[in-house]
Write a structure and sequence with these properties.
- The protein has a six-stranded antiparallel sheet with strand order 12-11-8-7-16-17. A five-stranded antiparallel sheet has the order 9-10-13-14-18, covered by helices on one side. Strands 3-6-1-19 form a four-stranded antiparallel sheet, with no helix packed on it.
- It is globular.
- The protein has five domains: about 1-30; about 35-110, no CATH class; about 125-275; about 295-320 and about 340-400 and about 425-520, no CATH class; about 525-700, no CATH class.
- It is built from 17 helices and 25 strands.
- By secondary structure, the protein is of the alpha+beta class.
Length: about 700
């Protein structure tokens, strides 16, 4: 190429580059893609603009750094990240503009880079808010007081939220009084102070506990709470229930006071500004389904006006004061249709599918009274819950170690350990998971962790193998709900603090046990070709307790099997891939029955129980059905002299809905025979869906 031609080509290229540079400078800046929308609804008549705090949660990989809400001032306190570092759960505070009474406005959530949240509110500024006092007048004992100012001065100070829009500090103090102003040996008051500088308001959460592991019994007392000199709350005979709320098995036990292992919570607004409650957040239901943190509910479902009326009036009629039970069935072992058990309680399910304020009120209210149950024990050495890592031989069961309670000679008012609740794992509701997810309130986080830990502490030391925390033993439904609580605590415990490491370790330990079972590595409990949970097979659930049948056969409650299948599937959806082998194994049972009506009656999937094998005094010699046809012969072609298998005649029962929910999950995951099984179970269930088990049908 000649030189003039080369120079001309270079000039043309330079001109093109310059032209491109000009266009690049003039191009509009890149707009981040909207992640999700939410609707803010003003439930008050006079709330002006200002900050609102709520929980946000995201699917893995969606939020690398943080988020902003439109162009509004936003503070994001990230509490938990996924394993890839993306944000899973955060407590978000947004300075919303003024909204009229009952006005709704939709806002968009955008992923963004790090936000400058500004400096936190200094602790010294808390001196400007009125002092809050908790006065406890113990029956036949001293009057003792805990006050916020003294708790701040004494320390230690813990921070939960930190930034320019909101800062939340945590303090604690044992009530003091009586001779020599001694601290109460059992009760502890915890103050959580959430300060909103722009509104000149602060929310003070008061939590009163009787949870030390050496506490000897119930404390009978009256309480009042003062803001400055003004009484803002009072309650006589704290913990006393109306007669109608007390389980019949315990109707003659009398008044316990504030029982061992229980706590209560009240929240108050202080300061010169306005109350900053009143904004209700409506989440994007479709996006909630994508996060994997909640069951994938059928988005065509809607709560009805009848649901709203029934639950609003029902909640108002319950005893839901401090240390009472709300909508929780106090005798956990009570049979029959109940709203509080299932993957999530019915009230929480209604809230998630409706996003209505009335359902949220019931959900948060029951999250509050969750603390009334006697399963909260705190280690005075760590000020955290009693850990299996620190106390591997601790157990509520008789075979375990339980600490010696303190001497009560100087506190004769203490009543024997007792509670109106009778708690177990087999009928255990999930009370605080949804409340924590949507609010980020620390009280609910502790409830999520405490319920999971109580199940670990309740397991026998031998079966759980000390601090390993295995939960495979006991009733299959108890294994299911214990695993659900453990999954939730592992999934949402913050990155900072002991909870994440502790609960994830226990969860992975259990999932490893289940995988070893699937792989046939256990000496006694072996898998079958049809997915039977053989560790849960029992010589029970027989009609009229027929002794010969109990000696001859092993039974499985299929509905319990489906509860466990859902729990393990839930772990997989939460991102715990080591749950997949056990999930796929258990699915064989439910899918196999539903997909083969030519081999077994389809209603067998929601039988109260089925015979699954032959019993033996030597566990190693037990024999289980290895095919669907063999399972059919075992149940429907036995000698006429033997009792019939009890089959649930109600096709619209929770049992059938639970089977359908698992088959939907199997279909979404593309498991063998799941499509055929889904067609068959849909014919059985029809349109009679149980909200708690009604999942969306969608393949990945």
């Amino acid at each position: 190429m000649r030189r003039p031609e080369l120079q001309l080509m270079i000039a043309i290229l330079l001109n093109l580059c310059a032209s491109g540079a000009v266009h690049a400078q003039q191009a509009r800046p890149h707009q981040p893609k909207k992640l999700v929308t939410m609707t803010a609804e003003n439930l008050t008549a006079n709330r002006q603009g200002g900050p609102t705090t709520f929980g946000l949660f995201f699917a893995q990989g969606d939020v690398t750094n943080t988020v902003r809400i439109d162009e509004l001032p936003t503070q994001v306190d990230i509490k938990r990240r996924w394993d890839d570092g993306s944000v899973k759960h955060a407590v978000v505070t947004v300075n919303f503009p003024p909204l009229g009474p009952k006005e709704r406005k939709t806002f968009s959530c955008f992923p963004t880079g790090p936000l400058d949240t500004g400096p936190p509110v200094p602790v010294d500024s808390l001196k400007k808010i009125p002092n809050v006092k908790v006065v406890v007048q113990i029956h036949n004992g001293p009057t003792r007081t805990a006050n916020l100012r003294s708790a701040i001065a004494a320390g230690p100070i813990r921070t939960w939220l930190q930034g320019e829009l909101v800062t939340e500090y945590h303090f604690k103090m044992a009530p003091r009084g009586g001779k020599n102003n001694q601290p109460d040996p059992d009760l502890m008051v915890r103050f959580r102070v959430r300060v909103y500088p722009s509104s000149k308001s602060a929310r003070v959460t008061v939590v009163v506990e009787n949870t030390w592991m050496t506490t000897p019994g119930g404390i009978p007392y009256n309480v009042k709470i003062l803001r400055g000199k003004k009484e803002i709350f009072s309650q006589k005979q704290v913990g006393k229930w109306p007669e109608k709320e007390i389980p019949s098995q315990r109707r003659k036990v009398g008044y316990f006071g504030h029982g061992v292992g229980a706590r209560w919570v009240k929240r108050f607004w202080v300061g010169s500004g306005k109350v900053m409650d009143g904004i209700h957040i409506r989440y994007d239901r479709a996006y909630m389904n994508q996060t994997g943190l909640l069951p994938r509910y059928d988005l065509s479902l809607r709560a009805t006006g009848q649901d709203a009326s029934r639950w609003t009036s029902g909640w108002n009629a319950t005893a839901h004061g401090i240390l009472q039970n709300g909508s929780i069935t106090p005798f956990f072992g009570r049979t029959g249709g109940r709203a509080d058990i299932g993957p999530l309680p019915l009230w929480a399910t209604l809230y998630l599918i409706s996003q209505e304020p009335w359902a949220k009120r019931v959900t948060l209210g029951n999250g509050d009274v969750s603390g009334s149950c006697p399963n909260h024990l705190r280690d005075p050495e760590t000020d955290w819950m009693v850990s299996l890592d620190d106390y591997p031989n601790f157990s509520y069961s008789k075979e375990g170690w339980y600490p010696t309670v303190r001497n009560t000679q100087k506190t004769p008012y203490v009543k024997p350990h007792g509670s109106y609740f009778i708690v177990d794992a087999a009928h255990q509701p999930s009370l605080a998971y949804v409340p924590y997810l949507i609010t980020g309130d620390y009280y609910y986080l502790e409830e999520v962790q405490w319920w999971a830990n109580a199940n670990l502490l309740s397991a026998g030391v031998a079966s759980r193998e000390g601090k390993k925390g295995y939960l495979w033993s006991g009733q299959v439904r108890g294994v299911a709900w214990s695993m659900r609580q453990l999954i939730h605590a592992a999934a949402l415990s913050p990155d900072e603090g002991p909870g994440k490491k502790y609960f994830e370790k226990k969860l992975h330990s259990n999932l490893a046990w289940f995988k070893d079972f699937v792989d046939g590595k256990h000496a006694i409990y072996k898998p079958t070709n049809i997915g039977t949970y053989t560790p849960g097979a029992k010589a029970t659930f027989t009609e009229r307790k027929w002794k010969t049948q109990k000696r001859t056969y092993l039974t499985m409650a299929g509905w319990m099997h489906n509860f466990l299948t859902w729990a393990i599937s839930h772990a997989a959806e939460q991102g715990y891939d080591d749950a997949i082998p056990m999930r796929d194994y258990l699915m064989k049972y439910t899918v196999g029955i539903a997909a083969n009506p030519d081999k077994i009656p389809p209603h067998a999937n929601h039988a109260y129980y089925l015979l699954v094998g032959h019993n033996s005094r030597n566990p190693i010699e037990r024999r289980f059905a290895g095919t669907i046809s063999e399972l059919n012969r075992l149940n429907f072609h036995r000698p006429a002299t033997e009792p019939k298998v009890v089959i649930s005649p109600k096709v619209n029962s929770e049992y059938a809905n639970a089977a359908r929910a698992n088959i939907i999950t199997a279909f979404r995951e593309g498991l063998p025979q799941s499509g055929k099984a889904l067609q068959n179970i849909n014919r059985i269930v029809g349109g009679r869906l149980d909200y708690r088990w009604a999942f969306e049908i969608q393949k990945k």
